[in-house]
């Protein structure tokens, strides 16, 4: 038997759908449903290994462009950080996301 585990699994514990992309690849992204998990794969192995997130706003006129991408952050650095999304149409409207990066115990896979 062979077990292959992805290096990064993104767990969205929020009530919102999120978009996740590699830095500078704004048009190639992964959609992560609320309260779900998705494997993250680097879309460009030669590009920066940093990611950005933003909310997918189903109430917006253009759901994908309603919010700006967060500042980029590194997935491999353990600990917590926060990032902010600004609304494209209203600079006074924003939201913060707490990002927890942790190593999970995978021994139960074996």
Write the layout of secondary structure elements.
Layout: E1 8-12, E2 17-22, E3 30-32, E4 36-40, E5 50-56, E6 73-74, E7 79-86, E8 94-101
Keywords:
single chain, 110 residues, four-stranded antiparallel β-sheet, two-stranded antiparallel ribbon, 8 strands
What does this molecule look like?
- The chain has 110 residues and is an all-beta fold.
- It has one domain.
- Helices cover 0% and strands 40% of the residues.
- The strands form three sheets. The protein has a four-stranded antiparallel β-sheet, with no helix packed on it. Strands 1-4 form a two-stranded antiparallel sheet.
- Strand 7 and strand 8 form a beta hairpin.
- The chain is globular.
- The N and C termini lie close together (10 Å).
């Amino acid at each position: 038997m062979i077990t292959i585990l992805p290096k990064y699994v993104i767990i969205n514990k929020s009530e919102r759908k999120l978009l996740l992309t590699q830095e500078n690849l704004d048009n190639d992204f992964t959609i992560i449903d609320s309260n779900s998990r998705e494997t993250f794969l680097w879309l460009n192995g030669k590009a920066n290994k940093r990611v950005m997130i933003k909310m997918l706003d189903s109430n917006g006129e253009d759901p994908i462009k309603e919010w700006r991408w967060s500042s980029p952050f590194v997935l491999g650095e353990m600990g917590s950080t926060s990032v902010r999304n600004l609304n494209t149409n209203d600079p006074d409207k924003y939201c913060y996301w707490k990002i927890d990066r942790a190593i999970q115990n995978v021994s139960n896979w074996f």
